[in-house]
Structures are given as C-alpha cells and as structure tokens.
Amino acid sequence: MGEGQRPAERSYALLAVVAREELLAYTSLRRNFVAATMEVVLDRRSGQRRGADARVTTERRLWDRRRHDITTDLQTAGWVLVRRDAGATSDSTRWSLIPGMVPARVRSEALLPVSNETDALGARERGRALAASIGMSPTESASVVAAVSELVRNLITYATRGEIIFRAIESTRARGIEVVVIDEGPGIPDVGLALQDRFSTSGGLGLGLPGVRRLMDELWIASRIGEGTTVAIRKWRSER
Fold this sequence. Notes:
Oligomer: single chain
CATH superfamily of the largest domain: Histidine kinase-like ATPase, C-terminal domain
Strand content: 25-35%
Number of strands: 9
Order of helices and strands: EHEHEEEHHEEHHEE
C-alpha cells in the first residue's frame, strides 16, 4: 500500500438495525450475515425529544419519518432492514439475504436456543410444524425434519450450544422454509471436504452435511476456526 493510501472500506448496501433489548437477535444476525453486504448495528438512540426552539428542516422531517417507521418495526419485530442506496425510499420489509441464495421475504421467524436433547426434540417439532404450515407434502416435511435433526446433532456434538432460526420465506417462484443453525464451536477446517460423501469427523452413522445437502434445495455454510459455524438450508414447497 503506497504512502498516503487508505485501506479500502467495505461497502454495505443494507443496514440491519436491532433494538437494544434484542441482544440475542443482534448476535444471531451478526453471525448470520458474516459474509453478506450488510452491516448489523444496535439501535442506540436515546429517544430524547427535540427542543421547542429547534429548527425543523425538510431534511430533518424526512429523517423523522424514516425514524418513526423504523421505531414501529423495532417495537414489533425487534429488528428492521433499511436500504442504504442513494435516493431509495425507506424500506423496512424483512429479507433473508444469504450469500449465493435468491433474496427472499421473511414472512415469519422464530429463534430457538439449543443446548440439549430436549431442545433438539423441540427443534425437530418446530421444523415439522413450520413445513406443514406452508403446505408442504409429508415427504417434504420429513426431509426438513431429517435435515434439522442432523444439524442439531452436529451442534450438540461439536459446539454444545447454539441457536436455530426458523423462517417461513417467499420468493417470486414459491413459498418455502429456511433454517439457520448458528454455533460458537471450533469451526470446520475444510468446508469442501466436510461436504464430500463418506466424510465424517465423528465416525457416526448420521446423514452428515452431504446428506443434508441432498435433502434440501439449497445449503450455505460459513465457518471460522475458533469462532463457530453457520449453516443455512432452504426447502421450497413443490407446486402440485
């Protein structure tokens, strides 16, 4: 780097603002979008009222309107997505923006901490119920449950505890479900190797990540040694 040159700053097109009380959601979003062009921040506004003699400019009124929209969503959902594009209007629709996957609207979302077999059973039932709620067939629902079971088994085995986000999503093509499993385990040294058939770090007889990939329509993994792993899977409802 030449003298006087500054390192290139990462460009973010989207900003996720999380209510200060939603620390768990903040942590999950930070891990979930580790490789995406989105910044995740805590809402640190103090909520102080403007003085009576303060000048109210057109720019300030526009900011206040956007702030009101964001505040409403923070109160109901805990976090809100804002476009940073120049000239873009305020957009608080919630989206799933996983790298390599088509952006999808999030219609519902639930976060479930997992640390033991009881939690694992709850996760499987949550996946089954979500699949049924969007009209998936019994076969599709069974695939979702099997994939969730494998990911939860890996989480408990390698990381002890973590979180699972269940989402009902919608794209221009179909409705589906998305499951994001987040842990703070040791990480996966070689993701490509872990996705190969017959590869297992534990010697178990589970499906493994290759089996999860075959069951699902989409799979994405981000892992950092010593920091943890995030696995996102999607299953789209077939048109019948």
